[in-house]
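ok trying again, last paste got cut off:
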Amino acid sequence: MRKRDKSAKEKADKVDSGIEEETSKTADNHPCSGNLELDFTQQCKLMGVKKIPSVKLKQTKSVMEHDQSQKSLESQMTTWSSEPCLELENEDQSKTVKISGWKVDDIMLQVLSRTLPSLSNFQCLHMWRVGLTDCTFASLRNTVSLCSNLRKVVLDGNPLPEQSYHLLIGEDSMLTDLSLRNSHIGDEGARLIGSSLSTVSTASKKLLSLNLAFNSIGDAGANHIAQGLRLNRSLLCLSLSHNQIGDEGAARLAEVLGPFALTHEEIVERRKLLIKAEQSVIQPSLVSLADSQEQPLSVRSSSSLDRPNKTAKTTTKKKDNPIKEEKPAPAQVAKKEETKVAKKDDKVPRSQAGKIGAKDKNLPVPEQETVEVVETVIPLLDPGIVHTGGKVIHPGNTCLTSLNLSGNKLTEQSLKLFLSSLEGQGEGGLLRLSLNRNRFPSDCDIFLKIQEIMALKDPLNKNNTGQVEDEHGELKTTSTA
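nice, full thing came through this time. structure:
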């Protein structure tokens, strides 16, 4: 009897898998038109969804503000839906799609993977408390990668056992904003996220804002995040408010903001980049960093890490002269080749030839290269790196402009470190630092000093003298008469 039951189950599984394949094939045979409401309903029917969620247009603020305040609007967006629905911000463009308060299973994610990529103006996806699992998250990640214009993803309230959120922040990711609030992210999840922000050889290049508020990140997790900030030069806003970060983790974050010493691994990678630059292997990406190539090589370091490579330095110095003599040669050869091409290409219209000629006359070849490479940033070749006291000192991460650490476990000891880092940054660096609701009195001298410095640096706070904190630990400025 048992054998018969097993064979019956296997046959049933085969039948179910065959039905799923047939439904997916039929769904593939019906391409989407770009109209989310029509496409979503059609794909749900083809995939056999019994209760199809509705597609609703979000009511504009002018209509809703007669009955409700802005706070009630925000609370509406974070409550369970009475019935499943997709909410659109704009009916024609479908820039923002919001799903909140109902479980999105694998079949529904397959429907979304067919409909969302067809939206040409789709830029923002909100999925609040939709019951994501590790399996469905993997499917969602594939869907996100298929949406060419998607830049912002909000996955608040979706805890994952494997904490694999870092897969959305890879080096090839196109996302600029990611919110993972209240997702039970611990130190392990923070470690994975920190390694995705940057390592010695890789770094996230597109992510501008990361919200990790209301999680369970402790000192170890903050240390991993700080490690990821060392060589990351894209992230502008980071929120770690309402976690479990103490003085140890805050010290690591403060260290990254100011000048810090490079590790042995970072020094080795830096030397590799310098050698490649000298050998003209990375010509276009390092031409604008010529100063940073010459200074570190001309300064001798007494560090024990630098001693084994003194022979390598002497060999490179001997090759400096021929390299400098050969540098003008490629430019001259390039000009000759351009003139030859201009003579040979008689079929090119004169208008185009005139534009090309004008560019060549106005800008030399090296200047053209530097103009194209302004956006290229290699932190290990920062021109501000100096050798002092036997160490290689990096000027620190001055790209991060906003850091929120409110609602943690910081004491006055952390304030001293942040104060010294802010004073070491000078111009640039942090424009906003939130340290409210920690374990120090709000009227302590160091905290007041930090607030004075940030008030002078914050461009939005030049004409304001008061600061008020909202319920989420965010600072709001209030003008005084």
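cool. The chain has a mean pLDDT of 75. Residues 2-28 form the longest helix (27 residues).
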